[in-house]
Amino acid sequence: MLKILTTRWKQGHRTTRFPLELPTLPPRFRGRPVLEPARCADGCRACADACPTGAITTDGGLQLDLGRCVFCTECVDACPEGAITYSTDHRLATRRRADLVLAGAELQLADRLADELHALLGRALRLREVCAGSCNACDLDTNVLNTVGWDLSRFGIHFVASPRHADGLVVTGAISRNMHHALRETYAAVPEPRIVIAVGACAISGGPFRGSPDVCDGVEGLLPVDLYVPGCPPHPLTLLDGLLRLIGRIQGKAAEGVDAVVP
Is the same domain home to 143 and 75? Predict the structure, then answer.
C-alpha cells in the first residue's frame, strides 16, 4: 500500500482542468473546418467531387455539412485555391441539425437545455450509451471521459447500465437494421423527460454508410435529438464541451472565441 501511495504522490494531479483551462492540442488536430468561399473559382467543384460522404456542396455557394464530414481532409488536398482548411478549434457540438451546415466562419454552438429540463437535469445527468452499428471509435472516445484524465463524474454526468436509470441516450453508429428495434425499445425504457445525444457522423447522418439499405442513415427521423456532436470520431474534448454546454456549464459563441464557465 505504501508503494502505491508513493507512486500516486509522484504522479501528481492527472485530471485535466478543462473547462477552466484548455488542453494544448497538437497542430495536426483536425477541428472545426474554416471555409473561405471568396477564394472559390467559378464553377470549381474539386472539393465537392473529392468528398467521400457528400458533405460539401458548391451550388449556391460553398457549404460543408459537419454532420456528414468525416474529417478526412480530401477536400483540402483537392482544392486548388485553399478555400477549405481545418482549425484546431474543438468546439463543434450544436443543438439543431441545421446548425451543422457551415457556409462561412460562423457556427451556432450548443446552448443549454430548456429551463424545465435544465432544472431537472442540469446538476446530474445519467446517460445510457447505445452502440447501434458503429466501428467502436466513437464508443472508445466516449469511454475515455470516464478515465482519470477527464473524470466526467466531477460534472455530475455518469454513464449507467440500464435505460431505466437514465435521463437520456448517447447514440453511436449509423443505426443498422438489426439495431433499429433495440434502439427504439431502449429509448422507450428511459423515463420522461428524456434526451438524445447523437455522437459521430454515423449517428448524425449515416456517415460513410449513408444510403446503404442496411442502415437507417443515423438517428435523425427515428428519435428527437437534443445534441449533435460531429466527428469521426469526435475528440473527447469535443464531446465533453458539448455535454457541458447542454447542462449550462459552458456558455459562449464560436464567433466570439471566448467561453464563460458557469460554476
Answer: no
What is the value of pTM for the model shown? 0.93
Domain boundaries, position 230: 115-254
CATH number where 183 lies: 3.40.50.12280
Number of domains observed in the structure of the chain: 2
The whole-angstrom separation of Cα 42 and Cα 4 is 65
> What is the pLDDT, as a whole number, of residue 254?
64
Residue partners of 3: CB distance under 8 A and separation at least 6: none
Give the C-alpha separation, 2 to 207, whole Å: 50
CA distance 192 to 188: 9
Q: Which residue in 157, 180, 182, 155 sits closest to 167, CA to CA?
A: 157
Q: Is the peptide bond before 19 cis (omega within 30 degrees of 0)?
A: yes
Angle between helices 137-144 and 236-246 (to 10 degrees): 70
Cell of 77: 488536398
Q: What is the pLDDT of residues 191-245, one digit of tens each?
A: 999 999 999 999 999 999 999 999 999 998 899 999 999 999 999 999 999 999 9
Least confident piece of the model among 8-17, 166-175, 189-198: 8-17
